[in-house]
């Protein structure tokens, strides 16, 4: 069997066209969706992520602005900025780029963002709503993964979804989303025993670990759907996923590539969440 490749890049493009049209409709009602990203310090990876996000906003017609703060910014100063954005009616989405410098407690900052502007979906209010299957801002990568699976017409209900990784931004929420879709969900992590025995039971295997090519053909059931979230830079500068794409594509029925897989969906879901915030705040 050779797997069908799910190009998130292609699905993302279709969704972005639709979002662009939605933005135009909102503009007619004098609603101008706006996202503000706050970045603290000079982390080059964070800076390039922020640029990608800004460019994607521009293309979709969403207003975006970036507040750049120095590395030595205190928690109190950052809180002041977030509070101002919470009060600013022209700002619909607030995103504080992580990681933050050591002197700032990420949890405190995330909890200071108004939940109705929390387009990253990291606020405990939104996490709780997701957990209880209520409408919420859902973290962008998990939401993008669910969209990819749905748009590929892959059945979810009753299927065994195995998630490798339990981070707050990917692993945990993606498992919760699929549970809400009536899948049977198993989480694996660094202390999991017999990992391969468990991953081989997956109908849908979602890998979000951050270890290049750790999932090989032997870890995947024949015909499984494999979603690779990993973003790992190899010594030659190339990008690899957590899944050994070349071997696993011989076993899987569907597989997402890296790059052009989950990554483009993540930013697209940020745009979608910003639009959702603009609609909700303005209604
Ligand atoms: P974290 O480092 O926060 O979490 C990694 C998870 O993997 C942890 O739960 C950890 O377990 C688990 N883990 C580590 N080693 C093993 C192992 N040997 N076997 C099983 N589980 C293991 O990473 P993130 O969730 O933030 O990101 C995961 C990957 O996804 C990274 O490569 C990241 O770059 C990428 N990513 C890609 C995005 C995209 O848009 N494409 C967006 C976000 C992330 P434990 O909890 O026990 O420590």
UniProtKB/TrEMBL annotation:
NADP(+) binds at residues 165-167. Residues 139-280 form the Tetrahydrofolate dehydrogenase/cyclohydrolase NAD(P)-binding domain. Pathway: One-carbon metabolism; tetrahydrofolate interconversion. It catalyses: (6R)-5,10-methylene-5,6,7,8-tetrahydrofolate + NADP(+) = (6R)-5,10-methenyltetrahydrofolate + NADPH; (6R)-5,10-methenyltetrahydrofolate + H2O = (6R)-10-formyltetrahydrofolate + H(+). It comes from Salinibacillus aidingensis. Transmembrane segments: none annotated. Residues 6-120 form the Tetrahydrofolate dehydrogenase/cyclohydrolase catalytic domain. Keywords: Amino-acid biosynthesis, Histidine biosynthesis, Hydrolase, Methionine biosynthesis, Multifunctional enzyme, NADP, One-carbon metabolism, Oxidoreductase, Purine biosynthesis. InterPro entries: Aminoacid_DH-like_N_sf (IPR046346), NAD(P)-bd_dom_sf (IPR036291), THF_DH/CycHdrlase (IPR000672), THF_DH/CycHdrlase_cat_dom (IPR020630), THF_DH/CycHdrlase_CS (IPR020867), THF_DH/CycHdrlase_NAD-bd_dom (IPR020631). The lineage of its organism: Bacteria, Bacillati, Bacillota, Bacilli, Bacillales. Catalyzes the oxidation of 5,10-methylenetetrahydrofolate to 5,10-methenyltetrahydrofolate and then the hydrolysis of 5,10-methenyltetrahydrofolate to 10-formyltetrahydrofolate. This is Bifunctional protein FolD.
């Amino acid at each position: 069997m050779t797997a069908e490749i799910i190009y998130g890049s292609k699905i993302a493009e279709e969704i972005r066209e639709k979002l662009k049209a939605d933005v135009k409709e909102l503009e007619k009602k004098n609603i101008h969706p706006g996202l503000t990203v706050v970045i603290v310090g000079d982390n080059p990876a964070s800076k390039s992520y922020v640029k990608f996000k800004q460019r994607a906003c521009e293309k979709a017609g969403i207003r975006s602005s970036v507040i750049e703060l120095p590395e030595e910014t205190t928690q109190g100063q950052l809180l002041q900025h977030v509070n101002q954005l919470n009060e600013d009616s022209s700002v619909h989405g607030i995103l504080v780029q992580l990681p933050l410098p050591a002197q700032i407690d990420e949890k405190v900052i995330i909890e200071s963002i108004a939940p109705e502007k929390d387009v990253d979906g990291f606020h405990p209010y939104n996490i709780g709503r997701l957990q209880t299957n209520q409408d919420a801002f859902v973290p962008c990568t998990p939401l993008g993964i669910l969209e990819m699976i749905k748009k590929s017409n892959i059945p979810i209900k009753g299927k065994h979804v195995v998630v490798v990784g339990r981070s707050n931004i990917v692993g945990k929420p993606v498992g919760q989303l699929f549970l809400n879709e009536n899948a049977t969900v198993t989480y694996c992590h660094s202390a999991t025993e017999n990992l391969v025995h468990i991953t081989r039971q997956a109908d849908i295997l979602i890998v979000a670990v951050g270890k290049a090519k750790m999932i090989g053909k032997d870890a995947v059931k024949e015909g499984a759907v494999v979603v690779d979230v990993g973003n790992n830079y190899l010594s030659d500068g190339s990008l690899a996923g957590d899944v050994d794409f070349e071997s696993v594509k011989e076993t899987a029925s569907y597989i997402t590539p890296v790059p052009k897989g989950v990554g483009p969906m993540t930013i697209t879901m940020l745009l979608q969440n910003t639009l959702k915030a603009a609609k909700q705040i303005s209604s």
